[in-house]
Specification:
binds Muraymycin D2
């Protein structure tokens, strides 16, 4: 909105010309989101406590989690309001990709919100099967818009291989739906220690702020020999908003957490990152930067598969962060080490843009 209201004034005063630049609006989106989070955070924590929207902690948790009982949850609603607000303020709203990422974010947030609310009020959330069905319907809707409205090409980009862009046809649609649903659930599985999910989410969003910027810039895209997607650069602002909102949320979610994000945050942030990567045609890059999400999800798949076939556990408990807890690692140690791994993965992912 700021872009639309003030950019046209550049003819009267040159200062408004700065709004033309995606880099300026991305930094503004980060700072705006951070500010909104700082202002609304304490109010939300107080409100959630008054409404008794506190976390119920399961019986089978590693024992230190018992002290977390009653911590207000659904803090993700703050993250989402902040991301959406900041994006609406600083983006070019005639760009269809901006609306597509906002759609996925809000639709998954709504699903997560209903799940959180039912967990607290009726002690049982939406069943896993129903959740997957709704996630798939939302993902199919977004995929339909991509292909039938925005004329998306079903080509995959492979790191290191600049000349190979396999045309996957119908399989690409299935792949996109899988990436949307999978990333959303993987972030949800990761969200089991204070700050464990939001750290990698911010690092991934920061990486994709850069990736979408270069993918939407003809000269940079050509120089790096990555797919050019016209208008994709505007998603840099959305990614910036996630970084700012994430930092603001981490202020309250850092160990020992005053608030959890809930499914409203984890499902929607996972979906948002996946949608950005899909539009930028950098799905594999997402798997690299978001390696922690992949590892967390794989640890559950391996644990369940091996237990069902051999009645043995590979990990002391899955997802893998519980394994390290039970090995005796202090909670902050697991969290910060998982952040460090994500920073390394981000650097590797960025370097694949050049190594082609
Ligand atoms: C989300 N949610 C946390 C909070 C957060 C299939 C199975 C592997 C599923 C998995 C599962 O349910 N995962 C979903 C995990 C929960 O946090 C809430 O949930 C939101 C995210 N959806 O925002 O609202 C608890 O996590 C802790 N927490 C923090 N700090 C945070 O910032 O400490 C969360 C955020 C909170 C709090 O204690 O209460 C959760 O873990 O429930 N299930 C599991 O993860 C379970 N694993 C399991 O059963 N493993 C088996 C098999 C099935 C693989 C095995 O290893 O044999 C574990 N979950 C828990 N305890 N809580 C088991 C032990």
């Amino acid at each position: 909105m700021i872009y639309h209201l003030f950019y046209p004034l550049y003819t009267t005063h040159i200062v408004f010309n700065v709004l033309r630049y995606i880099s300026f609006r991305t930094i503004s989106a980060i700072l705006t989101a951070l500010l909104i989070s700082f202002i609304l955070g304490p109010w939300l924590i107080k409100k959630l406590k008054e409404l008794q929207l506190g976390q119920r902690v399961r019986e089978d948790v590693p024992s230190r989690h018992r002290t977390k009982e009653g911590t207000p949850t659904m803090g993700g609603s703050l993250v989402i309001v902040t991301v959406v607000g900041s994006t609406l303020l600083w983006s070019n709203l005639t760009n269809p990709y901006v609306w597509l990422v906002l759609f996925i974010t809000c639709a998954y947030a709504l699903l997560g919100f209903v799940d959180d609310y039912r967990k607290i009020k009726r002690s049982k959330g939406i069943s896993g099967k129903t959740k997957i069905i709704f996630q798939t319907i939302i993902a199919l809707t977004a995929t339909g818009v991509l292909f039938f409205v925005l004329d998306f090409t079903p080509q995959l980009t492979l790191p290191f291989l600049k000349d190979l862009h396999p045309e996957l046809g119908l399989f690409y649609i299935i792949l996109i739906v899988f990436i949307l649903v999978g990333t959303s659930n993987a972030v949800n599985l990761t969200d089991g220690l204070d700050g464990l999910a939001i750290g990698p989410v911010m690092i991934t969003a920061g990486t994709f702020a850069l990736v979408t910027y270069v993918s939407g810039h003809t000269e940079f895209a050509q120089y790096l020999q990555i797919p050019y997607t016209s208008g994709c650069g505007e998603l840099s602002i959305f990614c910036g908003a996630i970084v700012g909102a994430g930092l603001g949320f981490l202020w309250f979610n850092t160990y020992p957490a005053q608030i959890f994000m809930g499914d409203v945050g984890s499902l929607s942030l996972g979906g948002a990152l996946a949608m950005v990567a899909i539009i930028a045609k950098q799905e594999i890059l997402l798997a690299i930067v978001g390696g922690i999400f992949v590892i967390e999800a794989l640890s559950v798949i391996i644990q369940v598969a091996v237990y069902q076939t051999k009645k043995k556990r590979v990990f002391k408990m899955a997802p893998i962060h519980h394994h390290y807890e039970l090995k005796g690692w202090a909670e902050p140690k697991i969290i910060v080490r998982f952040w460090i791994i994500t920073i390394i993965l981000s650097l590797i992912a960025i370097s694949t843009l050049k190594l082609r």
